[in-house]
């Protein structure tokens, strides 16, 4: 099988590339390296089953060439930062929606059937039902979430235009090695710079699910291999929630620190568009035989241990 992975030099994308190569796929990665790092793929140097294209999914001609000849497109490239879209309101539209449209057009043109898409729990906004099922009708709270929901809607419509099949995974917080963004990386940076005080955005009680990246990849592939509707949409998370205060406890312990003063910026949210509670119903994907192997605490701890090592050796 031949797979194109957009955003394959990023955090989750590079782990997916590892798994696809191990499973015998021929993999092409396209990434503009805006956030990704070629270092994330360096252990595959010399592997003739991996082709890397430095390119941008906003460029229709580039993505058309990359899509051609593949059996499946795993589409992870995105502007994935709710906070930067607060200052650049076009970023989600251009990278996420226009980028996805370019991929769908190329798939139709070249007869590539399968699109597997990295969506997000952010599209549920502040859901009034917990755990939130895939069928929940959301109200948008961020441009990022809105753009991902629009991508899903476009892909769904494209399944009517031709022979396209679509899988979307609404991830909660994915963590693990190579994750250089988000609360774990930020807390390690702050505590490395000042081991006596930790600034926590919001009130420290935002309640979210932290899924380990290997479980996320396994979930994506389980759904892709076992769900065969034209449109297949899944939540992908763990079952237990943790707060920034819980994350801080684990990191402070792993760094061997004591007497750390916590300073809260206040309010229920860390920033505009931060949904204070994310709790997804994952029964649909579990019914296909998948379940997370790592608890939220194990996922946070593994990521923290890696981030501490990474930041102290750099
Ligand atoms: N990490 C999470 O917790 C999480 C949660 C929900 C959804 N997601 C989604 O999963 C996917 C992967 O996220 P990640 O955490 O690995 O982020 P990431 O930033 O590490 O990966 C995204 C990759 O896409 C590349 N990219 C961005 N814009 C591009 C463009 N226009 N053309 C080509 N490449 C481009 C970046 O260089 C990067 O390598 C994203 O679609 C994101 O929205 C992630």
Task: Flag low-confidence runs.
Answer: none
Please, how many helices?
A: 9
Number of individual domains: 2
Report the end-to-end length measured between terminal Cα atoms. Answer: 38 Å
Walkthrough of the structure:
With 314 residues, this protein is an alpha/beta fold. It folds into two domains: 2-171, 3-Layer(aba) Sandwich (Rossmann fold); 175-208 and 240-270 and 296-313, UDP-galactose 4-epimerase, domain 1, CATH 3.90.25.10. The protein has nine helices and twelve strands. Helix 2 packs across helix 3 (91-110), helix 5 packs across helix 7 (244-254) and helix 5 (183-193) crosses helix 9 (296-313). It is globular, with a radius of gyration of 19 Å. The mean pLDDT is 97. Bound molecules: nicotinamide-adenine-dinucleotide (NAD). Residues 7, 9-13, 30-36, 56-58, 76-80, 95, 99, 118, 120, 171, 173-174 line the site of nicotinamide-adenine-dinucleotide.
Q: Which helices and strands, and how do they pair?
A:
Blueprint: E1 2-6, H1 11-22, E2 26-31, E3 50-54, H2 60-67, E4 72-75, H3 91-110, E5 114-120, H4 143-161, E6 165-171, E7 173-175, H5 183-193, E8 197-200, E9 208-212, H6 213-226, E10 231-236, E11 241-242, H7 244-254, E12 261-264, H8 283-286, H9 296-313
Parallel strand pairs: 1-2, 1-4, 2-3, 4-5, 5-6, 6-10, 7-9, 8-12
Antiparallel strand pairs: 9-11
Helix pairs in contact: 1-6, 2-3, 3-4, 5-7, 5-9, 7-9
């Amino acid at each position: 099988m031949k797979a194109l992975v957009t955003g394959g030099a990023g955090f989750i994308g590079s782990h997916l590339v590892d798994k696809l190569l191990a499973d015998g796929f021929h993999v092409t990665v396209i990434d503009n390296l805006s956030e990704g790092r070629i270092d994330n793929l360096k252990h595959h140097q010399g592997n003739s089953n991996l082709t890397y294209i430095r390119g941008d999914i906003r460029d229709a001609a580039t993505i058309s060439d990359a899509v051609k000849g593949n059996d499946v497109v795993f589409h992870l490239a995105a502007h994935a930062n709710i906070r930067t879209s607060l200052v650049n309101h076009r970023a989600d539209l251009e990278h996420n929606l226009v980028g996805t449209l370019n991929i769908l057009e190329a798939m139709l043109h070249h007869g590539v059937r399968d699109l597997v898409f990295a969506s997000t729990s952010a599209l549920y906004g502040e859901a009034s039902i917990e755990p939130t099922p895939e069928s929940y009708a959301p109200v948008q709270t961020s441009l990022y979430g809105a753009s991902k929901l629009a991508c899903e809607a476009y892909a769904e419509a494209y399944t009517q235009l031709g022979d396209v099949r679509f899988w979307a995974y609404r991830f909660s917080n994915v963590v693990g090695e190579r994750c250089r963004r988000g609360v774990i990386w930020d807390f390690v940076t702050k505590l490395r710079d000042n081991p006596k005080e930790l600034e926590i955005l919001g009130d420290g009680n935002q309640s979210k699910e932290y899924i380990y990246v290997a479980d996320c990849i396994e979930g994506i592939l389980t759904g892709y291999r076992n769900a065969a509707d034209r449109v297949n949409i899944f939540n992908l998370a763990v079952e237990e929630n943790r707060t920034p205060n819980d994350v801080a406890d684990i990191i402070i312990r792993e760094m061997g620190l004591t007497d750390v003063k916590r300073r809260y910026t206040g309010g229920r949210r860390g920033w505009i568009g931060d949904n204070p509670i994310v709790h997804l119903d994952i029964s649909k994907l579990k019914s296909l035989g998948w379940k997370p192997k790592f608890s939220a605490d194990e996922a946070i701890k593994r990521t923290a241990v890696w981030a501490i090592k990474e930041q102290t050796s750099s």
